[in-house]
Automatic annotation (TrEMBL):
Residues 350-510 form the ATP-citrate synthase/succinyl-CoA ligase C-terminal domain. This is Acyl-CoA synthetase FdrA. The lineage of its organism: Bacteria, Pseudomonadati, Pseudomonadota, Gammaproteobacteria, Enterobacterales. GO terms for cellular component: cytosol; succinate-CoA ligase complex (ADP-forming). InterPro entries: CoA-bd, SUCC_ACL_C, Succinyl-CoA_synth-like. It comes from Limnobaculum xujianqingii. PANTHER family: PROTEIN FDRA, SUCCINYL-COA LIGASE SUBUNIT ALPHA. One of its GO terms (molecular function) is succinate-CoA ligase (GDP-forming) activity.
């Protein structure tokens, strides 16, 4: 087994492109692990921890390709990655002259004077400086980069507030601005519902379900996961609420977040009350009664947020929560689980979306099933060994614990699929609960490899010895992966596909309860 690397000076690529190249070479025969990253101090440490550092000498402006595997396979992977990274389409204008290579925000702004948004995707050590440059050039910022300190985030957002500009992020993975999907966004219809979310997959779930219900999105603004911490004060969400309140195309506003610090929540809700438009709020897991806010509709799940927003837009009565199981669901689940032996009692959740993992934990816990997790909700237990489940276990495979030196599972689901295979093979597992997230940047065929894994386990143990598989597909028909096609592929493989993440979690809880009563 060899470990090899190549270093390229001043060959910068954005984070998503690097993850996509990493995903491609990770799948090559004979490759055990691969990573394509910039040579920052943080990334060098992660390469060392992942066993990919064989004396690599690189600086923060260098790009590193590191691989571990069979000797010849490593050489082929390095060559393919270099080819992918250096290949650029030939571009020219009508006169046949190629445009200049832009190497700074200042040059870009000079070339496109009307540009008012900068999407920044550089290593976290340098992201704050680039964000400040963009703000000083009069541009709003989407900060895709993560690993930005709270102190730097506060500095960036205070400057943005002074300049009346918006900062989405750090670690903002999803946004839709004037109909343009940014980051890991989905293809949704334009419409009259505006969303501000401190969660990327939460924003995706709400915007996709709004699309599925026939409505559309005016603007979808991400804030980054730390915005509603007391130290930051919700600066970006407050700006977003005010922007949507003054946007003539937005008729209904939706706010999504994990429970904010109480003083921050109160400021946001006071601002929302002044919007002059219906506002739907989902602070995941928070008790709405604590806030006593009139004129704002609090909801229980991500799917509920979309359902209620569409109802308010259409001036219809508030629908019942999706967080319930119908008699028809019970009948199907009972029939599907009748073959499970009594020792199969445990829920195993394997998620690519962090907010889906969080919501599933909350709903399973409300149904009486506490769980261990690498990202536990209040009352759940921190998983002692993230690589092995114990009892009911619900893990976020997109967390830094799993993605250091690896692509995110939305881009490359290999590690997620391996975990699902392990859970399927565990004789204690009653149900494997998972998500499939579609959209730009995500794997083009996210179900294919998983279906191969399911087929392999089924062949080994027999169909009657498999636990149930319950999934939720976050996406739309207009996404490159086509939601209905992914759902049909899963169903053909025997997977039960729920309409939303909340419903999938409730289905899993129902199966576990039935097993406990055997």
């Amino acid at each position: 087994m060899s470990v090899k690397h190549k270093v390229f000076a001043n060959l910068y690529q954005d984070s998503v492109s690097l993850m996509q190249v990493s995903a491609q070479i990770n799948k090559l025969p004979g490759i055990e692990q691969a990573s394509v990253v910039m040579g920052t101090e943080t990334n060098l440490i992660q390469l060392r921890d992942a066993g990919l550092d064989n004396g690599c000498q690189a600086g923060p402006n260098d790009l590193i390709i590191a691989v571990r595997g069979e000797d010849q396979a490593c050489d082929e992977a390095l060559a393919l990655a270099e080819q992918r990274l250096k290949s650029k389409p030939e571009e020219s204008n009508s006169s046949g002259v190629r445009p200049p290579v832009l190497t700074s925000l200042e040059m870009a702004k000079e070339t496109a004077e009307d540009a008012n948004l900068a999407l920044i995707s550089v290593p976290g050590d340098y992201a704050a400086a680039e964000a400040i440059k963009a703000l000083n050039l009069g541009m709003n910022v989407m900060l895709f980069s993560d690993n930005v300190s709270m102190a730097h985030e506060k500095q960036i957002k205070q400057l943005a507030r002074e300049k009346h500009l918006l900062v989405m992020g750090p670690d903002c993975g999803t946004a839709i601005i004037n109909g343009m999907p940014l980051g890991f966004a989905n293809v949704v219809k334009r419409g009259a519902i505006g969303v501000v979310a401190a969660s990327g997959t939460g924003l995706q779930e709400v915007s996709c379900r709004i699309d599925q219900l026939g409505a559309g999105i005016s603007q979808a603004l991400g804030t980054g996961g730390h915005d509603l911490h007391e130290e930051i004060g919700g600066i970006s969400m407050l700006f977003g609420v005010d922007a949507l309140a003054n946007d003539p195309e937005t008729q209904v506003i939706v706010l999504i977040s994990k429970p904010p610090a109480r003083p921050v929540a109160e400021r946001i809700l006071q601002q929302a009350q002044k919007a002059g438009k219906p506002v739907v709020v989902n602070f995941l897991g928070a008790d709405a009664q604590e806030f006593h806010t009139s004129g704002i509709t609090f909801v229980h799940t991500l799917a509920d947020a979309a359902e209620v927003a569409v109802a308010l837009l259409n001036q219809k009565s508030i629908p019942a929560s999706v967080a319930q199981i119908s008699p028809a669901d019970e009948k199907v689940l009972a029939a599907e689980s009748v073959h499970l032996p009594a020792q199969r009692r445990e829920i195993r959740g394997v998620f690519a979306g962090g907010t889906f993992c969080y919501e599933a934990q909350l709903l399973c816990k409300q149904q009486g099933f506490s769980a261990s997790s690498n990202t536990p909700v209040k009352g759940n237990t921190l998983l002692s060994d993230i690589w092995h489940s114990q009892g009911n276990t619900i893990v976020d495979m997109g967390d830094d614990d799993f993605t250091n030196g690896r692509p995110h599972p939305m881009i490359d689901p290999t590690l997620r699929n391996q975990r699902i295979q392990e859970e399927l093979s565990d004789p204690k597992t009653a149900v494997v609960l998972f998500d499939l997230v579609l959209g730009y940047g995500a794997s083009m065929e996210p179900a294919d490899e998983l279906l191969e894994v399911i087929a392999q386990v089924r062949k080994k143990v027999g169909a009657q010895n498999l636990p149930l598989l319950i999934a939720h597909v976050c996406g739309t028909e207009a996404d490159p992966q086509v939601r209905s096609r992914q759902i049909e592929n899963l169903r053909q493989a025997g997977v039960l596909v729920a309409g939303c993440n909340a419903q999938a979690a409730l289905w899993a809880s129902y199966v576990a309860r039935q097993q406990a009563e055997k």
